[in-house]
Design brief:
By secondary structure, the chain is mainly beta. Helix content is 10%, strand content 44%. The termini are far apart.
Length: 127
């Protein structure tokens, strides 16, 4: 039995050309890992240098982004390109979140706080 080709070579070539003409976009690589005492976010953003990535904590949200320069009616503007944006879980110690680079990856470490083991207490009912 002969295998069917699902996408023609012409279509693949035209997609590649259109992507290149449109500026080419490569998606960031993101992985989340959990360890005994912390979580780890590993990010690699192709085409963005280490110096241009920013990590920010604001109102319980962790954001990783870089700034993109665009032209609007001939006026240069800077816009943030968000790579990661999520709420920080209650069991993470926000004061000890850190970020480093290793082998081309930005690694954000989210250390656990005392609530990571769970919280339990009996609540008395007033009468």
């Amino acid at each position: 039995m002969k295998a069917r080709k699902l996408i023609s070579n012409e279509l693949i070539t035209s997609i590649d050309v259109l992507n290149t003409i449109g500026g080419g976009v490569t998606e960031p690589r993101l992985s989340l890992k959990q360890f005994q005492g912390h979580r780890e976010i590993r990010l690699k953003v192709p085409g963005v240098s280490e110096d241009n990535l920013k990590v920010e904590i604001r109102n319980g949200t962790l954001s990783v982004f870089h700034i993109v320069l665009v032209q609007s009616d001939g006026t240069p503007m800077t816009l943030p390109k968000v790579v990661y944006n999520n709420a920080i879980p209650y069991f993470v110690d926000t004061t000890r979140i850190s970020a480093t680079y290793e082998d081309g990856f930005l690694i954000v470490t989210l250390p656990f706080n005392s609530q990571a083991e769970g919280y339990h207490r009996n609540v008395s009912i007033e009468k």
